[in-house]
Amino acid sequence: MLRNILAAIVGYIAIVAVLFALSSLLWLLLGPSRAFQPGTWEVAGGWILGSIGLGFVGAYIGGRVCARVAHDAKGATILIAMMIVLGVVSALMPVEMAAGPRPDDVSMLEATMSASQPAWLPWLNPLIGVVGVWLGSRKLRA
Q1: How far apart are CA 139 and CA 142, in angstroms?
Q2: Dihedrals φ, ψ of 116, to 5°?
Q3: In sequence order, what are the beta bridge partners of 116?
Q4: What is the CA radius of gyration of the chain?
Q5: Residue-wise pLDDT tens digits, 76-92
Q6: Is the pLDDT of residue 141 over 70?
Q7: Which pLDDT tens digit goes with each residue over 61-80?
Q8: Quick one: pLDDT at residue 129?
Q9: Could you tell me which residues are beta bridge partners of residue 18?
Q10: Distance between CA 69 and CA 59 in Å, rounded?
């Protein structure tokens, strides 16, 4: 059981690492002018679609990592439970809205802290995580 718990933790760390790397790449490709609506902190459709795709890729890779480390299929089940709990907690946390118009040049950190995303997106993230982990771990599960 300890190995399955460790596998879930390692899988989650893999998800975070992959998401950080791919989100940084997406930010470099889009930049603030295409990641946000003009002059606002509202994220653009391209960023939303990209983040959904990246979320799935990150969860898929995390599921594969978890399944490789785990003793059996329970490792992926633990990781899926973690994705649900952490995703719901994140969706329930209040979001502070950035005040004023968005400057033309913002850093990725500033964008992350100030972005205004649609209310449904934080609720979609746990679902994306569950599906990605499940598919990523499916073929490798015992």
Answers
A1: 8
A2: -110, 110
A3: 42
A4: 16
A5: 999 999 999 999 999 99
A6: no
A7: 999 999 999 989 899 999 99
A8: 96
A9: none
A10: 15
For 21-90, give the DSSP string.
HHHHHHHHHHHHHHHB-TTSSBBPHHHHHHHHHHHHHHHHHHHHHHHHHSSSTHHHHHHHHHHHHHHHHH
Q: Which two tokens stand for residue 27?
A: 């930010």
Tell me the residue length of the chain: 142
Long-range Cβ contact pairs of 111-118 (< 8 A, separation 24 or more): 111/27, 111/32, 111/35, 111/36, 114/41, 115/36, 115/41, 115/42, 115/43, 116/40, 116/41, 116/42, 116/43, 117/42, 117/43, 117/48, 118/43, 118/48
Residue 103: left (phi > 0), alpha (psi -120 to 50), or beta? beta
- Distance between CA atoms of residues 77 and 61, nearest Å: 15
Report the share of the chain in percent with pLDDT over 90: 75
